[in-house]
Amino acid sequence: MSITSVGEHTYTADGHTTFYLAAGPEDGPLIVFVHGWPEQAISWRHQLPVLAGLGFRAVAPDMRGYGRSTIYERNEDYAQELVVADMLRLLDGLGAERAVWVGHDWGSPTVWGLASHHPESCIAVANLCVPYLGLDNLLAGALKQVDRTVYPEDEFPAGQWEYQLFYQENFQAAVAGLDANPYNTIKVLFRKGDPAGQGRPSRTAYVRKNGGWFGPGTAAPDVPRDGDVVSEDEARAYAEALARNGFFGPCSYYMNHEANGIHAAQARNEGYLDLPVLFLHGRYDYTCETVTSTLAEPMRAYCRDLDERVIDSGHWMAQERPAEVNAALLHWLATKVGSHWPG
Question: Which residues are catalytic?
Fold first, then answer.
């Protein structure tokens, strides 16, 4: 079998099972990719074989509530402290003490949590789209950084984060709309970045006002799939897993801001990160907008060894612009984390 072949694995400890994909030599330097909402391990399909081909042991788990990992039935079972603990268990199951961690979307708060609470488990960390001290430090922190020139407070009190308040206020309705047709939901959500959207409100700002992602009690419309982000097989794989498990678990990540804030306050080193950090901004990511807003400023203050790159991409960066993401990640690994380079 080629070292770039991606294999399927599971690890169970303390009653929790994590399914994960892995490629590369088992004794290669470990790099773990952590996905977000509403994805799966396959979100990193463009990264795993590339890193494996260079000699890394590249791993991507299904997070709790997703794919073939354990599904829980309470909102509070998806707090970041528990999700971080899952990753520490997986690290132990992989027979390693430390890894380079890479996160995206809700995977980013998990990676930030590993770096800030368990730095001994991290060689370095990289995150896409969601900066440090954004969603991992209470929603209130992100609200302070809303660009009020784009989101007037009287029209969008929570700015682009209106959708997160909708989850908190109407959780069952939010989940029902997404569950109604997972395949169409995936096709609506997984779109490439649009330069024409710059300076205009994100669609997430209208979810609360419209009574749901697609309107009150309404399923996602049937739109053409964006082949620049997902193939037909990939869209079906996402949809089949979400149809089997439902959106309850994935959406429950949005229901733990208070618990996550308490956890964030327990960070070591007063929250400062001294290890190497890479952050990739999405130029056309209008929800996690970090290019023109101040959303990334707290990260710059608290990360003492920070590299930043802007990728001409929307939110689904690793899938939309894999070559650019891989190039940025590999350049950083080679220049800033050279001791972890294979061989």
Answer: 105, 315
